Amino acid sequence: MRVRVYESPSMATAMARIRAELGADALILASRRVAGGVAVTAAIDAPDDPADAPPSPPPPSSSPPPAAGRDAMLTHHRMPRAVALRLQSGPLGFALAAAFRYTTLDFTNAAPLLLAGPPGSGKTLTTARLATRLVLAGARPLVITADARRAGAFEQLAAFTRLLGLHLVSADTPLLLSQAIRHRAADAPVLIDAPGVDLFDPLQRRLIGELAAASGATVALVLAAGLDPAEAADLAAASQGAGARLLVATRLDQARRLGGILAAADTGLAMAEAGIGPHAADGLVPLTATLLATTLTRLAPAQDPRT
User: Fold this and answer.
1) Whole domain around residue 141: which residue ranges?
2) What separation in angstroms does the CA of 29 have from each of 8, 68, 96, 131, 298?
3) Are 193 and 157 in contact (CB under 8 A)?
4) In 47-80, which positions are buried (b, 16+ CB within 10 angstroms) versus exposed (e)?
């Protein structure tokens, strides 16, 4: 297998270079932001000298054509048709890398991160997981809850921060939030757990926007996998009215269909993290094209218990 890293100003130019040098069968292993653009790791299952590769035997006549298998898998996931059409060509990982935007969360000298979404989407657990990751990396994040609506919201997050040796700050208005941000330690990462809101309600959506503006935060939509794709796309579009630019997908270990997550990403949000377990110390991983390809394939119809 040949593995190469391509650094380019944008994902589009990186994809063009990979297609030109490695061909349409290249697999995207990872992508990350770097100074001046993106770095994309790609691989192709071939010897160093392609001329030495033995010819591939023709597939058995009884095997369905790849397009038919791919279409059945995407139909199983309730993939919107416009998205499914873009995922038909080439290896699935490559197609996913080309079709969507991805990013990594880098808290070095970065803006605060505000986690927003509907009630029950997993914002508090995601906040705890990110705080745990930062503490394990040697950082001391400022963790803020802006949720004064839900009973027990402060206590739930405080239970996690106490284990990490962190002090949880409650700031549920834009004014209190801006004051809390001003008193953080120099360059300390900031995580803000926003209240669960109805993103279709203009007043509740405006609250998220005001909290983000007061804190100078980047807004990430936290969305549970398994939602109806049309509903998920509407939620993602509405969240962008509150300033959301990133997508954190939760419950990937519980959902059977991922059409909702990709429909949400198709509105323009950059996929950042994926929740894959119930615990705060683990279960949160970068949401990459490779992870999506593996998960989509694992949940293919042949492994659906109802088929």
Assistant:
1) 113-303
2) 16, 25, 11, 26, 17
3) yes
4) eeeeeeeeeeeeeeeeeeeeeeebbebbebbbbb
Bridge partners of 8, per DSSP, are: 38
Residue whose token pair is 């992508």: 31
Q: Which residues have CB under 8 Å from 196's CB, separation 6+?
A: 117, 118, 119, 120, 121, 123, 147, 149, 150
Examine residue 7 and state whether it is found in any structural domain, yes or no: yes
Same domain, 152 and 41: no
Same domain membership, residue 273 and residue 173: yes
Indicate whether 33 and 117 sit together in one domain: no
Q: What is the CATH number of the domain that holds 123?
A: 3.40.50.300
Q: Does one domain contain both 141 and 235?
A: yes
pLDDT in tens, the chain (307 residues): 567 888 887 777 777 787 788 876 666 666 677 777 777 777 776 554 444 444 444 444 344 445 668 999 999 999 999 999 999 888 999 999 999 999 998 887 789 999 999 999 999 999 999 999 999 889 999 999 998 777 777 888 888 899 899 999 999 999 999 999 988 888 899 999 999 999 999 999 999 999 999 999 999 999 999 999 999 999 999 999 999 999 999 999 899 999 999 999 999 999 999 998 776 666 789 999 999 999 999 987 764 444 4
Q: What is the pTM of this model?
A: 0.75
Q: Both 264 and 166 in a single domain?
A: yes
124, 159 Cβ separation under 8 angstroms: no
- Answer yes or no: do 15 and 127 share one domain: no
Number of domains in the chain: 2
Give which of 184, 253, 173, 248 is closest to 213, Cα–Cα: 173
Closest CA to 278 of 258, 248, 250: 250
